[in-house]
Amino acid sequence: MSERIRIVEDIMGANDRLAAQNRADLDAAGVFAINLMASPGAGKTSLIEKTLEKLAGSLRVAAVDGDIATSIDADRAAAAGATAVQINTGGDCHLDAVMLRQALDQLELDQLDLLIVENVGNLICPASFQLGTHKSVLIASVPEGDDKPYKYPTMYKGVDTLVINKVDLLPYIKFNMDYFRQGVELLNPNLETFPVSCVTAEGLDEWVAWVMGNVEGFKQTGK
Ligand code: MG
Ligand code: ZN
After folding, report:
1. Which phi and psi angles does 107 have, rounded to 5°?
2. Suppose 126 and one of 94, 133, 150, 158 were both cysteines; which one would form an S-S bond, judging by CB atoms 3.0 to 4.6 Å apart?
3. Best CATH choice for the domain 3-221 from the list 3.40.50.620, 3.30.70.260, 3.40.50.300, 3.90.550.10
4. Distance in angstroms (rounded) separating the CA atoms of residues 195 and 206
5. What ranges make up the beta strands (E) of 94-221?
6. Beta strands in 75-191 (DSSP E)
7. Ligand with the closest atom to the CA of 117
8. How far is the CA of 120 from the centre of ligand 1 (A)?
9. Considering just the CA atoms, what is the radius of gyration of the chain in Å?
10. DSSP H helical segments within 33-135, as ranges?
């Protein structure tokens, strides 16, 4: 084994151990956590805003926003009613377990039911870094094109749920839904998928029901 490979394996091993610790702390506090990943502009923050609106009064939610710079997204999540923590990665193109640890340390976990982690907008490496969250969700969006599963297979393979955002634009954009879904099916058979629009609100109730169902199931089983 080359020294370079050994170093990369050590880094990933350390990250996975810290992710396991994050998970244990979330479990102990009864907080269900979602890792939300997507390319820049797919609508992560908009989906978080709409989700927070619908969950207001029923769940205590915090949002952790990973960005290379600025706190624009955390400010939007806070305005929508969540406790929000901004993580500026200082140029890194993904969140890792250390960064989530730093965010968890700023939150009163016992006072929360749900944590939504908005990863850095990027379709490549976020899928490779465990954070300790319970579910990974990918947001694809219609304007990105129908070829993304074919171009970014690792991301599509590694997630538990897929949201297809901006479906209100389907009449105006060349996007073959069958071709897109075939690509997804090859990589991640039977992946649960929610077509939504944050503009028209189409599909948002189904998506939020999935979130609620997961939080309730987690509360019942303690995992
Ligand atoms: Mg955002
Ligand atoms: Zn990265």
Report:
1. -115, 150
2. 94
3. 3.40.50.300
4. 9
5. 114-118, 135-141, 161-165, 192-195
6. 83-88, 114-118, 135-141, 161-165
7. 1
8. 8
9. 17
10. 44-55, 72-79, 97-104
**pLDDT tens per residue, range 92-133:** 999 999 999 999 999 999 999 999 999 999 999 998 999 999
Distance from residue 39's CA to the centre of ligand 2 (Å): 12
> Do 95 and 117 form a contact (C-beta atoms < 8 A)?
yes
The candidate with the shortest Cα–Cα distance to 19, out of 133, 169, 127, is 133
Cα of 95 from ligand 2 centre, angstroms: 7
Q: Tell me the pLDDT tens digit for each residue of 123-178.
A: 999 989 999 999 999 999 999 999 999 999 999 998 999 999 999 999 999 999 99
201 CA from centroid of ligand 2 (Å):
31
Residue with tokens 């939007």: 76
Sequence ranges of the domains in the chain: 3-221
Q: What angle do CA 82, 91, 119 make, to 5 degrees?
A: 35
Dig out the tokens for 109 from the structure.
């976990």
Nearest-angstrom CA–CA distance, 91 and 76? 21
Question: Which ligand lies nearest the alpha carbon of 72?
Answer: 1
Distance 36 CA to ligand 2 centre (A): 15
Encode pLDDT of 62-91 as tens digits: 999 998 888 888 899 888 888 999 998 988
Q: Which of 63, 165, 222 is nearest to 72 (CA)?
A: 63
**By C-alpha distance, which of 109, 142, 143, 114 is closest to 36?**
114
